[in-house]
Amino acid sequence: MGDSGGSPTPSLNLAAAVQVVLVLLVDAFGGWLAFNIFQDGNLFFALAIVATLVLITAIVLIPSLWPLKWISPALALMILLSIYPLLYTVYIAFTNYSDGHRYTKTEAIELLGERRYLPEGGSSYASTLYQNADGAFALWLINDAGESFFATGDGAWTAVTGEAPADYNGFAPLEGGAVFRALSAVDGVTFGDEANGVQVQSRNEASGFAQQWVYDAATDAITDRATGTVYVSDPVLGEFIAANGNPAPFGYWVSVGFSNFSRIIESTLSQGPLVRVVLWTIGFAVFGTLSGFALGLLTALLLNGSHPSLRVLRTLLIIPYAVPGLVSVLVWRGMLNSNIGIIPEVLTSIFGASPPFSSDPGWAKIAILLVNVWFAAPYFMLIASGALQSVSSSVYEAAEVDGASAWTSFWQITLPLVLVALGPLLIASVIFNFNNFFLMEAMFGGGPPIAGTSAPPVGHTDNLISYTYRLAFSAGGTKDYGLASALGVVIFIIVGLLTLVQFRLTRSWEQVSESV
Amino acid sequence: MKKRLLLLIVVTLLAAMLIAPVAAQDRPDLLIWADITRAPALEELLAQFSEEFGVTAEVQEIGFGDIRSNLTIAGPAGEGPDILIGAHDWLGEFIQNGIIVPIDLGDKAAEFSPSALDLFTVDGVLYGMPYAVENLAFFRNTDLVPDAPETWDEVFTISQELVDSGAAEAGWVLPNTASYDFYPVMSAFGGYVFARNEDGTFNPGDVGIGSDGTIAAGEYVKQYVDGGYITPGIDGDVMVTLFTSGDAAMMMTGPWFLNRVRESGVPFAISDIPAGPAGQGAPFIGGQGFMISAFSENQLLAQAFLTDFMATSDAMLAMYNIDPRPPAYLPALESITEEAMGQFQSAGANGIPQPAIPEMASVWGSWGNALQFIINGELEPADAYTQAEAQIVEAIGTISAAPTSVALVGTIQTFLGCPGDWDPACEAAFMTDNGDGTYSITTSAIPAGEYEGKIAFDGNWDRNFGVDGTMGGDNYMFTVPADGTELTFTFNTADNVLTIDGAS
Amino acid sequence: MSDAAITSNVPRADVGSVPAPRAPFSLGKTILFILRALLIAFLIAFALFPVLWGISASFNPSGSMASQTLIPQGIDSTEKLFRNYTRLFNDPQIPFWRWVGNSLFVAGFSAISVVTISSLSAYAFSRFRFKYRRNLLLGIFLVQVFPNVLAIVSIYLMLLQIGKYIPALGLDTYGGLIMIYIGGGMAVNIWLMKGFFDTVPRDIDESAMVDGATPSQTYWLLIFPLVRPVLAVVGLLAFTGTLNDFLLARVLLTDRQNWTLMVGLYSFVEGKFSDDWGVFAAGALLTAIPAVILYLFLQRYIVSGLTAGAVKG
Fold this sequence. Notes:
The complex is a heterotrimer.
Chain A: H1 13-39, H2 43-61, H3 66-69, H4 72-93, H5 105-113, E1 116-117, E2 124-131, E3 137-142, E4 148-152, E5 157-160, E6 172-173, H6 177-186, E7 190-191, E8 198-202, E9 205-207, E10 210-211, E11 213-216, E12 221-224, E13 229-234, E14 239-242, H7 259-269, H8 274-302, H9 308-322, H10 325-336, H11 342-351, H12 361-388, H13 393-401, H14 406-434, H15 437-444, H16 464-473, H17 481-515
Antiparallel strand pairs in A: 1-10, 2-3, 2-6, 2-9, 3-4, 4-5, 7-8, 8-9, 11-12, 12-13, 13-14
Helix pairs in contact in A: 1-2, 2-4, 4-17, 7-17, 8-12, 8-14, 9-12, 10-15, 12-14, 14-17, 16-17
Chain B: H1 2-19, E1 30-34, H2 39-53, E2 57-61, H3 64-74, E3 83-87, H4 91-96, E4 100-101, H5 114-119, E5 121-122, E6 125-126, E7 129-134, E8 137-141, H6 152-164, E9 170-172, H7 183-188, E10 194-196, E11 202-207, H8 212-227, H9 236-244, E12 248-253, H10 258-264, E13 268-271, E14 275-276, E15 279-280, E16 284-293, H11 299-310, H12 313-322, H13 330-334, H14 339-347, E17 352-353, H15 364-375, H16 381-396, E18 406-410, E19 432-433, E20 438-443, E21 449-457, E22 464-465, E23 476-480, E24 487-492, E25 497-501
Chain C: H1 3-7, H2 10-13, H3 26-58, H4 78-81, H5 83-90, H6 96-127, H7 133-143, H8 151-165, H9 174-184, H10 186-198, H11 202-210, H12 215-226, H13 228-244, H14 247-252, H15 261-269, H16 277-303, H17 306-312
Helix pairs in contact in C: 3-16, 5-16, 6-9, 6-10, 6-13, 11-12, 13-16, 15-16
């Protein structure tokens, strides 16, 4: 058929009109959404939505793009759920977004501005909440000297003598639950006049609080009025810094250029074991995939057929895949434990000794590969048994006529054809295993550790992701999202290149299939 | 066909909208995040509170660790709780991000255990209302070990006898990667994690993982390894399994495993941590408590709920009953007759607070690995802990590298010939390297008066030291008695302390 | 495609299996058969032993995952034996059946949507020739190779934003969660399906097109029935993956009543010193049942080979 340049059937005018109307509706709705999100200050997300809309509209309205209509739902989801988070991560990689730098400058100033303090000479009072028929609140206050005052929310401050009255200018004291219900309404409200303003401190206390942190845009500095210290904003570090070098309680995030990347280069250069980590990462990705695929394909071949018993066996073999991974890893860990596990126990009773699975680097890797095969084989069995169906039996009959043995027909027919269908899946699986954080962390926490490394500690079964996770989220005591994102970008580049190479190598597969 | 396609999108979206539960429920006046253990008790308490005071309140159940991680995302986004239950060692991260606000317990403060309040106090400010404290205690199987061992040496002798005689598979066991679990042993031998300043705070500039005491504790464990009394592959779960099956005779654990030990039917007793050369072993004290989110719109109400409703014996006992850990609220603690709680308390009497400073996050991994190296027989204790300390110090980024410059900064700098005060990059204020780990500068150019100063490394503020050698600590305050007095400032990189000769 | 039709087609059903279709000696055949049986027995043991171990842990009343024996010890009453299960079903704190319902709904809806959306794309990539087809295909793949360390944070904030304007796709809604799941494994699914579509001979749809069928008619009437095995595989993978996920769901679903089963179960063991492994193991093993049943049901599509039959017929 090929590119026929437009919808092959001309009799769809009504359908075309419906499409245009629908697209306009989607555009209108999406536009409204994007506009609102833009107004909320989330420019990037709004742009992602607009990009999606433009794409869908173009696909529907431009006739020559008709094949893309089939792909448009996937593309739309992909822009929003994959490309947008990807770009967001790349963006974060160029910032110092981390603990202590989690807010924008405006947010940080606002958050600090909410803090209040009791200035020197400020007074504290025992207080009683009053409310009038209009719902306005007031406070009956008694200071340490025993003097009492009545303060309203609209600026009145009156010295009064005597006990708290049951009625004061229409205000009556609140009791019990009413006090609690009123607390959210009086939170942060100043009662009394300018000279004697107080804020509610608790159910029965009020104090002359003032705003503690005040920002001055002219000097670009924030002042802690409790101590009088001035913290000047440092737009390079994203901190407010006082003259003596101490920073304000927290800073804000700023763009830091390539500094996260140069930190990565520095720390990788200083890390001797990084080569080991990379080798294990690649080794696990490749062997983990190949072993799972081999066993899965073997199982699929062994059990290919429609006999009811085979059906039962296949179902039994799928169970490891159906059981949630977390529970399986824990069971495996228990079974492999050298103190109480069944596997060392059995091995000891047969051979008199058992390998130290959790404490020996080599055996720990073997244990992880073993558990991985257990996880991966059912997955490959599932897709391989699907793919085997595509190997048309006429091909085999032809092979049989040519006198090929089962062995030859497997290598020359079954395997190549299965690889055509599963090639990209194998690549995806290699990539997945390359990034397999869960298994490394859950089995031995990356351990056993490698001796004599610099920070952070590295283990023999750490892969790149678990190593970088440690570097960005536990070493140094803060969660450094900027660094983590930069690492994500670096790993993406590595994995992306690997993927491209693999596709180049497997390009021939698709051509084979297209000629079938 | 395209119609069908578009229809599909629309139908999918519509269906999702119709069937999905609509989240836009009214937000209650008080929203509390609690984990599965505590949520049921709080639900009941909140129902009482709502009824009594007419305030709507709800518990949202979140995994314990998720409370911490979700809060930092959900809080700033306006989706967080008003109150959360968390551990005291989360404070460092929360304060660093301004996520929680101080709590004012008022008169009620006197009714809480002072050491529990200390756990939640940072820089003199209370950030949480403690509700339970917890620490390790020494467990023994009374069939195998009738009397509580007094010293760690005794523990070793008993372990040897039990294993050699075949009475048990193991004597005393501890997790292979123990850090928290190892601290009581370490402290008995004089080891420490961070040195403590006079006011009880921790000094991240002085790490004690490589100290002689820690290494001595490592040597102690090595005896077990050499004799085959402790083998690789034990984690917390395995340790308890060995104890509850009667295979191991002694271990240290906290109230969280009490029920499991009880249910196993193994006869056991709880006692204080044995002593070592440096005295009684001290466990880390940890605490759990209520904190108020900085993003709450109802902070006053949240506080009133805590001080007027939760800080009562009834409420605290309800929390205790669902998850027995020694309460921090004294009236509730006094009314508890459960013997084990008293034993945990006794074991924790000399405990020290588990450091809540952010630097602690860099310690756990390396600290635990060191023990694993010893138990796997890979490294000698001295090497294991020296290397661990080096890693920790590097991760914390304190005194790891020698400074490229050591500047005396403060209000004296203009007199030293600097263009301005408080300038860490001014060469005129750089101190001279004496080659013995000290740096000094001598001047008589400073007129009489009162001054403030500090030490800054590398020409910037990243590493600066104040009073007591505390990184980022308070300024030194000093007085120059007369014009022309010769002053010598000496900075010792061993403890990062500055001494000033000639001034007071 | 009745069962009878399938079973009558014996030679084809054996396609690709190790025994050669024309082994001349019966002795060789027997040895091969025994070898095959032994291998299968070994594989079954390897696959099921840990599962049995997990089942044993789920009956262990002491709440440990380091279960020491296959037969849990210290059980002196049926009450103790079934304690974890009783708790799962009867504890008023655990809305077990509600969680199961939520899980099945989310997983079912996600699986159907994933299959539909991915198969349309895969068909287009396999059958239409358009500019930049290969680049687009590769691009889709590359995008999802990205190790998304911040995905949860950005997805959380994204759903929060959307939820303000489209409540049904916001936080704590199935709409939002399902949307994320559909987007999640798209690339792999498209590639898996395309690989399979490529093996369906092109003359089938080309001849149909010559007869004047539209691409959509060709797809729904001719191709769709032929690719059912791969649709079943992808559906099953998506279903199982969604059912077992808790990383995303526990951040995005906040209300306890809305939780999926895995989120609910995970809450038992999440704490540092959690003591409820038995309940977790019990529930997690039950989670596997729907996926296994679904596989049992879908097997006829996956294994019994409709493509080849169609080619022959």
